[in-house]
């Protein structure tokens, strides 16, 4: 589950109520990340939450419903991060920098949750998978829009905007696979590193320095 180190000390999944439902969801994140969705049983989840299997079914009808709730909340947050940056002030380079920093920081700070959110898509029921894929497309569109605007303004040199968008998002998401709180970098530091890498990837040109006033 999201530890205090991952969440900065706040209670994870505080938007989920009542508390029993939240505890079950936190336990499911931990179990899915550790064992994988298919190897996890409802008994595993209930045990981690200190409840009986019967108590789980009061709040979630199936194990898949739990995964869907986790995935929906995580993808909503990812989309919020990217659209906020894409629609924010500044040049295309500044907005892409902010999008990558924030997106990577979330995937590092919440790496356990992010692994479940990003890599258990195929375990969802068809209707839920369709819903989540639509959210992913919106996230893709937010990043693609900023890159395309940078190309049009001359800030970026990108011959393949869709392909580059996919590469940027894949790079950011993969942080959840390897990040460790015991590692040498903080989530902020990883975010800064990846933002620099992405700006290099798109061939971002530094803004020209203001011309110095000529002496009379």
Largest beta-sheet details: none
Give the C-alpha Rg: 20 Å
SS-derived structural category: mainly alpha
Helix content: 55-70%
- Could you state the order of secondary-structure elements as H and E? HHHHHHHHHHH
Find the count of extended strands (DSSP E, 2+ residues): 0
How many H/I helical runs?
11
Shape: elongated
* Ends distance: 67 Å
On the 0 to 100 scale, the average pLDDT is 90
Low-pLDDT segments: 3-10, 208-212
Describe the overall structure.
By secondary structure, the protein is mostly helical. The chain is 68% helix and 0% strand. The chain has 11 helices and no strands. The chain has helices at 4-7, 19-35, 42-48, 53-59, 63-86, 92-109, 111-119, 126-153, 161-173, 175-178, 187-201. Helix 5 (63-86) packs parallel to helix 8 (126-153). The termini are far apart. 38% of the residues are buried.
Which descriptors would you attach to this protein?
68% helix; 216 residues; mainly alpha
TL;DR?
The chain has 216 residues and is mostly helical. 68% of the residues lie in helices and 0% in strands.
Provide the fold topology.
Blueprint: H1 4-7, H2 19-35, H3 42-48, H4 53-59, H5 63-86, H6 92-109, H7 111-119, H8 126-153, H9 161-173, H10 175-178, H11 187-201
Helix pairs in contact: 2-3, 2-5, 2-7, 3-4, 5-6, 5-7, 5-8, 6-7, 6-8, 6-9, 6-11, 8-9
